[in-house]
Task: inverse folding
């Protein structure tokens, strides 16, 4: 879980263009009064979110003046991500603004960009209308630091993209950096490196941010933008944020994310460059991710993800009920880089065959599948097979009767199937029909009935050690879920004492065990009481602090004696949450006491 202090620290060192934000909490009454959707019914929300939930796949576009230096300043390559070059390179305002004179994207073709997204299977686009450098990619009357006033291009690309999206049937959304603006003022959370940047933030909110958000909400027709994608809530107190949130009323039906700040929840969670292990319970969410290592264009960043990774990311995200917002960073000429185009074509080829298994699907009913992922629609399970079985036998822990099994790529070719106590075995052909993942469709009556097979229970090692990982937990509740730190899963965002985690286990060797926990808890958040129950045995422990939410330590939490072997559930609960959150927990290990 990200604390507010940690969030601002991340911003201050500018390690990312998009800062992770904790899941939404309940809004206070003042914040809710400015939120146009604070009182909508669940049915109204479902209707408003319908197109977005069905889309599953969108294109993020980071484009601006930063594409001119393309990662290099004064002959030196500047580290970090491309759109942060002004900050990380400490470029004075006057020097940076000279780049606008070189920004003349004559090769920009809005229809070509939109057709590229559509051919890849994307259903919507979100483009940076203004990033942290404050440069407006539209004809702004609030500031002449914009593409029409300051560049030889003299055109509004958002207007052209709006027309192209309508023509091709895609939705268009706008990203807007509401707090950080290194040329117009705003928050100083990234530091100041030029005296000319000194500015009053409230003046900036009133004279730049509010008028510009009005412009982008009002100037592109009744349907655009469909999304307003805020970013980095630095110093966005409730009063400042309320002025911006209230503007959403100008665009009925618009969807916004959770990064405005000031107590405003928005509609969507926005994990960045990572896929939550279990998604988000009760919240719509969207993973944003780059194809290489940067969002804005850098001429020398060639660390491209493989098409296989991109397709499997899309599947993984859909299998957890989320959307995939995949980024491209166009050049100063107005071209999407060739490696991005190539990969999008390949993703599109896979989607052309398998799109039914992505669009309008919901999350997998299975906790974990060793060979791939699953998405579903009423009456259908879509099995995305990453690891095609060499023996042609696909094991599925499903007890539901199956009316029909077939490959999505060859619907007329019915697959044979065997049933047993462990579920269904689907007999597959020797090779997958499509690269990256082959999709098997199972048509079933009613809701899927998933087996919790004995083989899925966690067993002791030969020496009697029992290891319970966060990734293997069954989670009950609304806020608690599995997140990642340094690529390792942990139970996090535990803010509700009614939530809990459990692990089904098989004990073969009874005895006495030290219970060793690997956990983190930021100073100021410690003090929750956790209770561990296994069988008829229980003990409680108060959570101590570590250095931060990402600083994990391993300590013995207590000792427990199990008199009998057998199948049991290990249950971890919190009896109180005195300071906002309970714990980030990676694992519990039961170590036998000799």
Result:
């Amino acid at each position: 879980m990200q604390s507010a202090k940690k969030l601002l620290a991340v911003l201050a060192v500018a390690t990312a263009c998009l800062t992770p934000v904790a899941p939404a909490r309940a809004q206070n009454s003042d914040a809710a009064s400015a939120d146009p959707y604070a009182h909508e019914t669940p049915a109204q929300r479902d209707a408003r979110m319908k197109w977005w939930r069905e889309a599953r796949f969108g294109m993020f576009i980071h484009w601006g003046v930063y594409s001119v230096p393309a990662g290099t300043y004064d002959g030196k390559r500047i580290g970090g991500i491309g759109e942060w070059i002004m900050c990380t390179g400490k470029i004075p305002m006057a020097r940076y603004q000279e780049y606008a004179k070189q920004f003349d994207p004559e090769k920009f073709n809005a229809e070509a960009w939109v057709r590229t997204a559509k051919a890849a299977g994307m259903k919507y686009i979100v483009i940076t209308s203004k990033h942290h450098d404050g440069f407006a990619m539209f004809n702004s009357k609030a500031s002449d630091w914009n593409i029409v006033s300051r560049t030889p291009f003299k055109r509004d690309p958002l207007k052209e993209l709006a027309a192209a999206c309508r023509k091709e049937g895609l939705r268009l959304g706008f990203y807007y950096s509401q707090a950080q603006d290194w040329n117009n003022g705003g928050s100083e959370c990234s530091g100041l490196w030029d005296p000319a940047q000194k500015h009053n933030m409230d003046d900036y909110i009133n004279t730049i941010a509010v008028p510009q958000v009005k412009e982008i909400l009002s100037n592109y027709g009744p349907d655009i933008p469909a999304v307003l994608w805020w970013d980095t809530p630095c110093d966005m107190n409730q009063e400042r944020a309320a002025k911006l949130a209230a503007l959403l009323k100008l665009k009925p039906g618009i969807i916004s994310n959770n990064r405005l700040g000031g107590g405003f929840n928005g509609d969507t969670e926005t994990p960045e460059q990572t896929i939550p292990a279990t998604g988000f319970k009760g919240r719509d969410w969207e993973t944003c991710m780059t194809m290489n290592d940067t969002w804005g264009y850098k001429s020398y960043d060639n660390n491209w993800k493989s098409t296989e990774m991109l397709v499997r990311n899309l599947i993984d995200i859909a299998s957890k009920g989320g959307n995939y917002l995949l980024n491209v960073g166009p050049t100063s000429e107005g071209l999407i880089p060739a490696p991005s185009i190539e990969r999008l074509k390949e993703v599109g080829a896979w989607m052309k065959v398998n799109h039914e298994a992505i669009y309008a699907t919901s999350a997998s009913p299975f906790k974990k599948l060793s060979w791939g992922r699953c998405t579903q629609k009423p009456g259908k399970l879509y099995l995305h097979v990453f690891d095609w079985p060499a023996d042609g036998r696909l094991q599925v822990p499903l007890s539901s009767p199956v009316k029909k099994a077939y490959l999505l790529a060859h619907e007329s070719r019915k697959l044979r199937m065997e049933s047993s106590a462990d579920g269904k075995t689907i007999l597959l052909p020797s090779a997958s029909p499509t690269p990256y993942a082959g999709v098997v469709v199972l048509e079933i009556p009613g809701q899927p009935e998933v087996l919790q097979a004995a083989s899925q229970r966690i067993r002791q090692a030969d020496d009697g050690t029992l290891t319970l990982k966060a990734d293997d937990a069954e989670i009950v509740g609304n806020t608690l879920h599995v997140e990642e730190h340094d690529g390792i899963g942990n139970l996090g965002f535990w803010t509700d004492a009614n939530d809990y985690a459990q692990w089904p286990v098989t004990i073969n060797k009874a005895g006495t065990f030290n219970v060793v926990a690997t956990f983190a808890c930021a100073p100021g958040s410690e003090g929750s009481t956790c209770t561990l129950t296994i069988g008829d045995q229980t003990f409680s422990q108060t959570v101590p602090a570590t250095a931060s939410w990402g600083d994990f330590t391993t300590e013995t939490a207590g000792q427990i004696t199990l008199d009998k072997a057998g199948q049991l559930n290990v249950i971890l609960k919190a009896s109180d949450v005195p300071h906002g959150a309970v714990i980030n927990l990676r694992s519990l290990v039961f170590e036998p006491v000799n």
Remarks:
- Confidence is low (pLDDT under 50) at residues 1-27.
- Residues 233 and 261 are 5 Å apart (CA to CA).
- Residues 201-218 form the longest helix (18 residues).
